[in-house]
Amino acid sequence: IVCSLLFLGVVEMETKPTPHRLYICSFPSCSKTYNKQWKLDAHLCVHTGVKPYACEHDGCSKSFCSPYHLSRHELTHSRVKPFLCTVDGCTEAFTTNSNRARHVDRIHTQDRKKYVCRFEGCGLEFRKNKQLKSHMCEQHTQLPPYQCTYEGCQMRFAYPSKLKRHEKVHRGYPCTEEGCVFTGKTWTEYLKHRKEQHRVSLRCDQCSKVFRHSWFLDQHRQVHSDTRVVFKCPRDGCDRSFTTTFNLQSHISSFHEGLRPFACTHAGCAKTFSMKQSLQRHSVVHDPERKKLKIPRPRRSLASKLSGYSEAKRVVCKNRRKPESDSVSAHDTMRTAHTILHKSIYKVLSFLTWLFEVLVS
Fold first, then answer.
1. Distance from the CA of 349 to the CA of which of 18, 45, 134, 330 falls in 20 to 30 A?
2. Residue 314, pLDDT above cutoff 60
3. CA angle 355, 356, 357 (to 5 degrees)
4. What integer pLDDT is reported at residue 24 of this predicted model?
């Protein structure tokens, strides 16, 4: 029987052992998985932009995400080309297998499709259709072959990708929210509109905390779950564990790797962070408008703080199951007695606070 459970790098359910390790990227909206730690480390460069493997050759400042890519690059300095062309009579050699395959396809493949220029007296051959069209544009007609189809626009382009990019100027980026007629001229303008006008607020149904992304809400809900998932640090000698993959990745980046690439750009603030989300969360400190969005918590009285008893109104779940018998567990009895003790202390402190205020006035 093959176990179908997945564990996050290393993810362990508190009630089940983990027979294997699976390293999963903890960044939001990224579901990449790897079976080796170094593969995950190489992938994280895509998110952090940090390339830890630097070339030590004099005058070379290049850096890479993995030892493999660094060793492949070092071949350019040593001039060693281990991949020889497999075609008889060809003495070409290459630093990588992919470069050798590209060479064989371009030079030695006889049955490849050719695109021939039909202009009178030309007859040049090209391997790609877009190369032929670009040649026709530059050498013969002098007009790019791809013309904008919007009425009144005479723009032409040599490549379809540039035409597609240009057509967005006419079409724009319409807002997908129902009833909204806004159309952004650029993608950045569209995102800014979405952020300012259609900001999503997702509220936890257990504690009323508000989140702007469903991923953060799902991570937060684990706090209320009876069977919590524990994300253990996969580094040797480290026994730290976390309740979210975000906290795990932040721990690895800052504690084990010493990476804090995200710096606050606010004047006078020199704080740095290992995760982009941490920087975004910190930026609220410098933005008065975003501070107003925080939900104010009810102020607790001095008696409440000293006694540890909360005056918040209790919420009884309608779907709560009734006990099958009249017997009360020892845990429930202890919890009830503990609550009564705090409540009694709270009442005494409340009376003393009232008496003090009367005497002072």
1. 330
2. no
3. 90
4. 79
pLDDT at 294: 53
Q: Among positive and negative, which fits the CA dihedral 317, 318, 321, 326?
A: positive
The secondary structure of residue 320, as a DSSP letter, is P
For residue 323, the one-letter residue type is P
Q: Which domains does the chain have, with CATH numbers?
A: 23-87 (3.30.160.60), 247-286 (3.30.160.60)
Report the distance separating Cα 43 and Cα 227, nearest Å. Answer: 30
Mean pLDDT of 210-237: 77
Q: Does pLDDT of 337 surpass 70?
A: no
Alpha carbon distance 123, 135 (integer Å): 11
User: Reduced to 3 states, what is the DSSP secondary structure of residue 321?
Assistant: coil
Run of H or E including 230: strand 229-232
| Lowest pLDDT segment from 72-81, 230-239, 287-296 | 287-296
Span 226-248, average pLDDT: 79
- What is the C-alpha separation between 217 and 200, in angstroms, rounded? 12
Scanning the chain, the segments in alpha helix (DSSP H) are 37-48, 67-78, 97-103, 129-135, 160-171, 187-197, 214-221, 245-251, 276-282, 288-291, 302-307, 330-360
Question: Considering Cα of 31, then 32, then 35, then 41, what sign does the dihedral take?
Answer: negative
Query: What is the pTM assigned to this prediction?
Result: 0.28
How far apart are the C-alpha atoms of 355 and 255, rounded to whole Å? 52
pLDDT, tens digit, 9 for 90 and up, residues 127-180: 777 778 778 777 776 677 778 888 888 888 877 888 888 887 787 888 888 888
Rounded CA separation 148/135 (Å)? 20
